[in-house]
Amino acid sequence: MHAVMEKAASAAITGEPRNQVEYIQQSREAHHYSPGIQKLYDLALSYFPDAEKGNQEGTPAVWSTGLMEAPLLYACDTIPMAVYDLGRLGSAVEAAELSENIFDMPKETCSMVSALIGEWYMRRNNSVKKVVALSTVCEPLNMGYEMIKEFGFDIHRVEQVIRPVHGGDERLEQMIKFLASELEDVAFFLTGKPVDEEKMRAEIKRLNRLMAKFREILKLRLKNPLYIKSLPTLFLLMGSAHYFGKPAEYEALLDQLIEELKTADFVPSPMGKIIPLTWVGARGLEFGVYKAVDDLGGALLSWFTPNPYDRVWNEDIPPLESMARFILDYFVTGSPVNQIKYIENMIEESGSKGMLFYTYIGCPYGGMHVELFRDHFHKKGVPSSGLEGSWQVGAPSGQLITRVRAFIEMLS
């Protein structure tokens, strides 16, 4: 058993969990009735150790964003290791302290960037040294990528364009062509040759199939929201972008959860009623927020995050073009104006009574998007609450929990 799993198994949960592994263990116990959830956490906890071991044994792995690049990377026979999952199972407090002490990074630096640089520093002697970096995801992180070059990491940047609100079809087609060529360069970086288009077509079909199953799980949750509570739903969502390095096992897990939900007994809310909610923004690391939502009678039934699941990739065009069009049409780094319609659809389909906007403290990019979203939905009469969290492990702040409690009580 991997060390992190041993830690989870032996964690003594007394009162509020102290770290992410203890939250997972607590969630395991809360979902004792679900073999599927137990398998989900097994996949999550073994994700990085198995990918690193496989890389040492000849199955290539690469650090990537873990957002929508799975078809391309798997077509290159490469396991994606999601950068943003580092915080969920890493040691972000220690990592951030390393960044401050070793690199003299000021405490005001984005906690995500500080933590990730520290995590990579602690992994500087591991075997996975290649990184595929999407240039538009986060400018401070772009600077972080420059810093980790000195640890021996090999950084390949994808110059990622953003679809404009205006500009016409001709400009859009130019952008698609450019982005497709950038994605082709990823294949050369990983394999030294062009991508195998037939393999990538098959991977796109697999992604579409898995997303259809994920959407079916979300649909079944509408009738029994707390059978799969918020934290495991978050992990299912994260896994939809990289399959935890084990596509076949992830798909079997989705099938198992679908069958469980079809026949499961109804799990009541501890508060006697369930308030349907939509989560918008970052996928928080403070797992206690998700637990608080469940405990207070909320249910996160739709998620507008950097892991899009509500669209289908085009299987009838060249695969790199399909990927480029998907990114430009939806990807979360695009203009918020282009994204609002997707959030509106989620709210309608899930019957949400309110929205939780989550951003990381000090993140100007996330903060600007949230303000634009909040203004739009305020005018439409949709209640919302903004939550600012940090890229740290452990229990969330009392202030954050108080905001969650007040918002759900207002909707009750």
UniProtKB/TrEMBL annotation:
Transmembrane segments: none annotated. It comes from the Bacteria. Pfam families: HGD-D. Signal peptide: none annotated. Belongs to the FldB/FldC dehydratase alpha/beta subunit family. This is 2-hydroxyacyl-CoA dehydratase. It comes from Aromatoleum petrolei.
